[in-house]
Amino acid sequence: MKSRNRISRRQFVSGALSTAAMACMPKIVSAAHRTAGALQTTARPRMGQNRIPMLVTPFPLEQVRLLDGPFLEAARTNLEYLNSLPADRLVHNFRVTAGLPSSAEPLGGWEDPKCELRGHFTGHFLSAAALTYAATGDEAVKSKGDAIVADLAQCQEKFGNGYLSAFPDDFFDRLREGRGVWAPFYTLHKIMAGNLDMYTYCHNEQALAVVERMARWIGHWTTGISDAHMQRILQTEYGGMNEVLFNLFAVTGNGGYFFTGQRFEKPAFFDPLAGHRDELKGLHVNTHIPEVIGAARRYELTAEPYYHEVTKYFWDEVVEERAYATGGTSNEERWLNDPGNLSTQLSVSSEECCCGYNMLKLTRHLHQWTADPRYMDYYERTLFNSRLGTQHPENGFKMYYLPLQTGYWKYFNSHFNSFWCCTGTGAEEFSKFGDSIYFHNEHEAFVNLFIASEVRWPEKGLTIRQETRFPEQEGTSLIIKASAPVEAGINVRIPIWAVDGGTVFLNGQALQAFSSPGSYLKINRTWADGDRLEVKLPMRLHTEGLLGDPTQQAVLYGPIVLAGSLGQAGLTEEMQYDVTQGETELGPRGAPEGAMTVDVKSLADIRSATWVEPVEGRPLTFRTVGQSSAMNLIPLHRVFGERYGVYWKVSRPNGWQG
Question: Do residues 536 and 474 lie in contact, with contact meaning Cβ atoms separated by under 8 Å?
Answer without folding.
Answer: yes
